[in-house]
């Protein structure tokens, strides 16, 4: 079993930056791929970014060039650096771990954190 805890969310003005962290404990975290997802009120959970055990990364189109996913295996932590934030980035952000066949598919991930809120004001 892998336990995931997100942190780093908060309130920021449009154009600002935040760095989210996803800290893992238990299991063999380094062997898993990790995805960041977000869910805004009244909307479905959507894929944001992905990194696998070999540091291959993949992003949703609307965050390319603004968000960067990375992992520190020594710290069992995955990060999501978010720059040039927009009001439409406002959501509850989750990290998830697993061995997804499709990196953007929610149901392909086994372990989930509780989420951290990101609010971007205009």
Give a brief rundown of this model.
The protein is an all-beta fold and 122 residues long. Helices cover 0% and strands 52% of the residues.
Describe the structure.
The protein has about 120 residues and is mostly beta strands. Helices cover about 0% and strands about 50% of the residues. It contains no helices and 11 strands. Strands 2, 4, 5, 6, 9, 10 and 11 form a 7-stranded mixed sheet that branches. Strand 4 and strand 5 form a beta hairpin. It starts with a strand and ends with a strand. The relative contact order is 0.31.
Chart the SSEs and their pairings.
Layout: E1 3-7, E2 10-13, E3 18-25, E4 33-39, E5 46-51, E6 57-59, E7 67-72, E8 77-82, E9 91-98, E10 109-112, E11 116-121
Parallel strand pairs: 2-11
Antiparallel strand pairs: 1-3, 3-8, 4-5, 4-9, 5-6, 7-8, 9-10, 9-11
